[in-house]
Specification:
The protein has twelve helices and 35 strands. It is of the alpha+beta class and about 625 residues long.
Length: about 625
């Protein structure tokens, strides 16, 4: 048994050695052999997960990370939670991925990736909103191995490929058993077709990896990535890593020469994937140099007029996370595209864009179909033609990584919008109010958006992404204005807003006679009578409806007589008329505390038919009446 145990320990040590020497492909096989022998130790699952993860074998990585967490170990580095969540995305298990991202967020609340996830829990919906903007085509120049890192060189396309090493052992890269990368040029015509394919000259292609080129507009200067080397041969540092460096070359009599490495390269870190801004005053690149937040960050460096360089500047936490940000490309209008597995995406590396002229630093996923569940990277685009290229290891390709061409049918919209949705209701009845006018204002009373409620009382608008408080103001005829305050935080949508409107108080002012205000027939009485006539009930019912609509209104019923009979008799008769009028309203449900009444006899005639004046019956009728005077 001791001999068996020693043999197994040697196997573990050998597999670990391969892993620490970055021979990931052979390490995977070694660890898998150990698992078959019954070994389920934590480090084996970690290393198997990592080796597959770093080789973009996300399905296999997910399997091993899953088995790692099944061990029930409580002190596992949260980074494994993050990687597990990422691999679940590549299997399109987004709900399960979100579960592990929430665990990661709980463990690493200040991590940029956790913050980005917490602020964008609806990231899949946002990605779908930006999807469908590309038409893709797999290029015919792809091989059965790896082709990636396209760059524009006039009409031509320069890219990196592993196609031609002949798979001789000394030219095999131990990371993934792939051949060393070389630079090729595809010759293009005016229609964008590629008519020939040639390997760049031997001064550029050494027994190292060469990739990721960038050319000046005049075609005379080239920046490219190469592994650390000694006398043109592949070399590693003390940790067993062959670091990446950026080199510059000049075109001299149609040949590339004067090849020098850039001064900010280092032997203990990598610098790779150069790209130039439009006026060629800045070089952007990816690196894990000191000051890097994650596995690799995007940096920029000033190119001085004399060809020297400034100090590299990290682009900061809006762009760089604790994971991988790599393969930058800058357009003519200063849009930076890059690949990342730190920002919320669909799985593996996704392509993102950010406007370098926008201080808010919004980073947007470019959406499907360009992004998918695997690695999508090395994106370049011509803003004039909207045509470009990128690489992906998605299913259906010819090799490990393929270059795809694309047509961008619609540019990425960096204008940030938030959705503002809600309803408007009647305060008293709760009924949804159609055709209400809706306006949104910021704290400086600037109008942000406007709309109108639909037939169901609902509204939907696009608002401002700037953090802060906003006010929704709703107006509608016959209603008082209503509003609702809401806050925008991290560009999240504002939904479920409810604005309540109260009907305007159209009650008559104090002193108003409701008979005139409501434009109804006067309440008339027969001669020497005080009962309510049938024709009077029509008008009284309208007064009743008014009092029901405005329950706070109080009135005084004032009743009158004509001038016939003596004054004291008429005063009593008018009091009886006022009392019967008020009683009718109380009988119909009006609180008696809202109605007072008084008789005025013949003291307030409406015409000249006073004592002794001859008048017609009709003229006397005009004075036998009740009035409804608003007193509160």
């Amino acid at each position: 048994m001791a001999m068996v145990s020693q043999a197994q320990e040697k196997k573990i040590k050998k597999a670990d050695t391969k892993f620490t020497n970055y021979s990931y492909a052979s390490a995977i096989q070694s660890y898998e052999d150990l698992v078959e022998d019954g070994y389920t130790e934590e480090e084996i699952f970690k290393n198997l997960g990592n080796a597959n993860y770093l080789n973009a074998n996300y399905g296999e990585a997910s399997n091993w990370y899953g088995q790692l967490f099944q061990l029930g170990v409580t002190d596992i580095d949260p980074e494994y939670m993050y990687r597990y969540a990422q691999t679940l995305k590549s299997l399109e298990k987004y709900d399960a991925s979100d579960v592990w991202m929430n665990k990661f967020k709980s463990a690493m609340s200040n991590d940029q990736r956790a913050l980005a996830f917490g602020n964008n829990e609806d990231y899949l919906e946002k990605i779908e909103e930006r999807s469908g903007r590309y038409e893709l085509k797999n290029l015919g120049l792809n091989s059965k191995v790896s082709d990636f890192a396209p760059s524009f060189y006039g009409k031509d396309l320069v890219f990196s490929t592993a196609r031609d090493s002949g798979l001789i052992s000394k030219n095999i890269h131990r990371w993934n058993n792939g051949a060393f990368l070389n630079l090729y040029k595809a010759t293009g015509d005016d229609q964008g077709n590629f008519t020939a394919l040639d390997k760049l000259d031997r001064k550029l292609n050494k027994k190292t990896h060469e990739s990721s080129t960038a050319f000046t507009k005049d075609g005379q200067t080239m920046y490219f990535t190469r592994n650390n080397s000694v006398n043109g041969k592949f070399s590693r540092d003390e940790e067993g890593i062959s670091r990446l460096k950026i080199f510059r070359a000049d075109l001299i009599e149609e040949e590339w020469g004067n090849i020098v490495e850039l001064p900010f390269n280092g032997d203990s870190y990598s610098v790779a994937h150069p790209t130039l801004n439009n006026d060629e005053t800045k070089l952007y690149f990816a690196s894990d140099m000191p000051g890097t937040a994650g596995e690799s960050d995007i940096f920029s460096v000033e190119i001085n007029e004399d060809g020297t360089f400034g100090a590299p500047q990290n682009l900061g936490p809006q762009i760089n996370t604790e994971a991988r940000e790599t393969f930058p490309f800058v357009t003519e209008s200063d849009i930076l595209y890059f690949s990342s597995d730190g920002h919320p995406g669909l799985g593996g590396l996704d392509v993102f864009g950010t406007d370098l002229n926008d201080d808010s630093g919004k980073v947007l996923n470019v959406g499907r179909p360009l992004n998918g569940e695997e690695d999508d990277f090395s994106y370049i685009v011509n803003e004039g033609t909207r045509k470009g290229f990128f690489a992906s290891n998605r299913d259906g390709g010819q090799g490990n990584d393929d270059i795809y061409s694309f047509l961008e049918k619609e540019p990425l919209d960096f204008t940030c919008h938030t959705n503002i949705t809600g309803v408007v209701k009647d305060k008293k009845t709760g009924a949804l109010l159609a055709n209400a006018s809706i306006k949104v204002y910021d704290t400086k009373k600037n109008l942000i958006a406007s709309s109108e409620t639909d037939a169901n009382g609902a509204f939907a608008m696009e608002g401002d992404c700037t953090d802060g408080n906003y006010k929704v103001v709703a107006t509608k005829a016959d209603y008082d204005e209503g509003d609702k305050i809401f806050a925008t935080v991290n560009a999240k949508d504002a939904t479920g807003i409810e604005v309540v409107l109260a009907q305007k108080d159209k009650s008559a002012p104090i002193g108003t006679d409701l008979a005139k205000y409501l434009n109804i027939e006067p309440i008339y009485f027969d001669f020497d009578k005080y009962f309510i006539r049938e024709d009077a009930r029509i008008s009284l019912n309208k007064v009743l409806a008014y009092l029901n609509e405005y329950p706070n209104v109080k009135i005084q019923v004032g009743s009158h007589t004509d001038s016939r009979a003596n004054d004291s008799y008429n005063l009593q008769l008018s009091a009886n008329r006022a009392k019967s009028t008020a009683a009718y309203l109380v009988e119909q449900g009006i609180d008696e505390g809202r109605i007072s009444y008084e008789g005025f006899g013949e003291t307030q005639l409406t015409n000249d038919c006073s004592n002794g004046v001859p008048c017609t019956k009709e003229q006397h009728q005009m004075n036998r009446r009740s009035e409804f005077i608003v007193v509160k």
